[in-house]
Specification:
There is one protein chain. This protein is an alpha+beta fold and about 200 residues long. Helix content is about 55%, strand content about 15%. The strands form two sheets. The protein has a five-stranded mixed β-sheet. The chain has a two-stranded antiparallel sheet with strand order 6-7. The protein is globular, with a radius of gyration of 19 Å.
Length: about 200
């Protein structure tokens, strides 16, 4: 069982039950940007109480850990629960979104993308992945979120909607982080500086 195996097991279940969902977090960032190791997948899904039983049936013990009580609480309180493959340690964090303008926008803008080598899944737009990572950076100051964002800005195969990013960064109170990212992106890289120094010494 790999992260990709778990992801597509969940995707098949979402699609079978006609549950709106999208992948976000590190897996989404790698879809649009630079690859790095992750053993977790983050998924936003619009779940209801009637989905608890088929989820528990699809991911039963002893191979999986899925708490029906935790899933019900996540649906009730709009928070996350986990699906864990016990022996392999791969995990999915499934988040039940609150009703908000931003979450409605994320759901409307998600798109089918090739994720890994297994097939197509719904993935948050690159702009929405970046905005959530700005929020996570604001909460925990983890540089990995900034690296992921800069990687997407540098190599994303799609045009980036900077107006959308600036608009929502202001609404989400992360505009200062967005500006810091743009400043870093414009700054000469370490490789560029090293090349300049070599040329100056010749």
């Amino acid at each position: 069982m790999t992260t990709e195996d778990l992801l597509y097991s969940l995707v098949q279940l979402f699609e079978h039950l006609e549950i709106p969902y999208f992948i976000t977090g590190s897996v989404a960032a790698m879809t649009y940007g630079e690859s790095r190791f992750t053993s977790d997948v983050d998924i936003v899904a619009v779940l209801r109480g009637e989905h608890v039983a088929p989820f528990c049936a699809a991911f039963p013990p002893p191979n999986y850990y899925l708490s029906a009580d935790a899933m019900r609480a996540a649906i009730r309180d709009h928070r996350q629960f986990n699906v864990l493959h016990i022996t392999e340690g791969v995990k999915a964090d499934i988040m039940v979104p609150r009703i908000s303008d931003f979450n409605q926008s994320r759901l409307a803008r998600c798109r089918p993308e090739h994720v890994g080598s297994r097939g197509v899944a719904m993935v948050a737009s690159p702009e929405d992945v970046m905005l959530k990572k700005m929020e996570y950076y604001k909460q925990g100051q983890s540089e990995k979120h900034l690296r992921d964002i800069i990687g997407m800005l540098r190599i994303c195969p799609y045009p980036i909607d900077h107006a959308y990013l600036s608009n929502w960064a202001a609404k989400l109170d992360v505009l200062d982080i967005w500006q810091m990212i743009l400043d870093r992106l414009r700054a000469p890289s370490t490789d560029d500086a090293s090349t300049d120094n070599q040329q100056d010494s010749q």
